[in-house]
Amino acid sequence: MRYLLTHLDDAWVLTLIHLRLALIPVLLGLLIAVPLGALVQRTRVLRRISTVTASIIFTIPSLALFVALPLIIPTRILDEANVIVALTLYTTALLVRAVPEALDAVPAHVRDAATAVGYRPLTRILKVELPLAIPVLIASLRVVAVTNISMVAVGSVIGIGGLGTWFTEGYQADKSDQIVAGIIAIFVLAIVIDTLIMALGWAITPWVRATRTRRRGRAAAPA
Amino acid sequence: MGPGHPHPSQGQSGGTGVNFLQQALSYIFTAANWSGPAGLTARILEHLTYTAVAVVFSALIAIPLGMLIGHTGRGTFLVVTGVNALRALPTLGVLLLGVLLWGLGLVPPTVALMLLGIPPLLAGTYAGIANVDQDIVDAARAMGMTESRILLRVETPNAMPLILGGLRTATLQIVATATVAAYASLGGLGRYLIDGIKVRQFHIALVGALMVTALALILDAALAFAVWASVPGSGRLRGRSAAIPQPLLGDEVALESRSVVHDPAGGPPRAGAGRGG
Lengths: 223, 277
Known about the structure:
The complex is a heterodimer of chains A (223) and B (277).
Chain A (H helix, E strand, L loop, with lengths): L1 H5 L1 H33 L3 H16 L2 H11 L7 H25 L3 H9 L4 H34 L10 H8 L3 H29 L1 H5 L13
Helix pairs in contact in A: 2-5, 2-7, 3-5, 4-5, 5-7, 6-7, 7-9, 8-9
Chain B lengths: L16 H12 L11 H33 L3 H13 L2 H12 L4 H24 L3 H9 L4 H31 L12 H9 L3 H28 L20 H13 L15
Helix pairs in contact in B: 1-9, 2-5, 2-7, 3-5, 4-5, 5-7, 5-10, 6-7, 7-9, 8-9
């Protein structure tokens, strides 16, 4: 704890690096996955292909991907770009499955009503279906953001920057105080980002607050 | 060191990717590299040991807890908060701190990897049990089954796909992350990856990366089959529902979205939120 308080400047600099590595991929993944997910939603074959590809990508361990990426793309080994590309792949892999599922959850009568009042498919997806899919998207984004933050931390064993460097430095210098400081900093960072994304979801979906939907089943039955 | 922490290889990690791949593959396909105490076979077994021990311990903690909370509906808040908090806890930090505090051995990696395995298992078990059709549970209760029998004989079999889905996610994350055990002077496939980077033998690092990936893909395929086989009834053998299940964090997303969608206040889900009646 003392280490954290006496190294607040370092903590801030490392936090910024950590956030850059963890969150740029979230934005890039979102930019790729939302159009892609909306595109494959209606086509069975494409959707199956994207789902299977996504699962395989997700199964590749992150450390392995950080090391193996330079084989596939023209980056240097241990370049920051590998981390960004790898985490973007994971984010896209998770979201490209979540987006069509979220769109599926939009009730058919809502879609029909939108069509009936004159929305063309593209505007309907953008203005009606995607907004209604936001709660599920936000849930996925929270998981992705927190997962990315911990993946960047693990990456410090192969020399990736960020708050994880306090773990490797603290371990090599036998300073458990520094490791504890790193754990606290990353924990707080993850919780803060998670809460911010949740708050963002809350702020942009006022209708969710207005309509109290109640689940069937256990929720409705007295225990 | 601060912001400019230099990457060890910047500037001159010469050689092309294809070269590294060829070297890595020829390393893997050389029989001599598979034997001995530091051979591939031994490293794979070490890696699997860390994984299995951690998975078993996280299951021992998370599954009973998730069953209890899912059945009683009490402590839902604990699941959501606990899952979020544990997911935010950095594995590497816990592992290295554990080594400094308790010394080398199986304890630090087991504890650190358990923290990875508990969230998906807890979320999967809880969601599985809590989502069993209430009519089925009521029917069992009406037939005179005791609560513990309802939980064990009715709810658990119905929840099995989600529980095993959680197990699949947990195993996948643990097998991937067991790589870092090598950083704390332990064995496992991480030895290749981390040592390879340290001594700039990038083809050795690549051997580690390829082997861990292969291990993860094989384990995942096996568990995907288990999830599929655990679907109650024979519906999976007929028709279109026979899709291969793809949980992979899906259980956690499901848990999160439940709390987002069904907690109208949007704030942190409260205990018993949505339990009207």
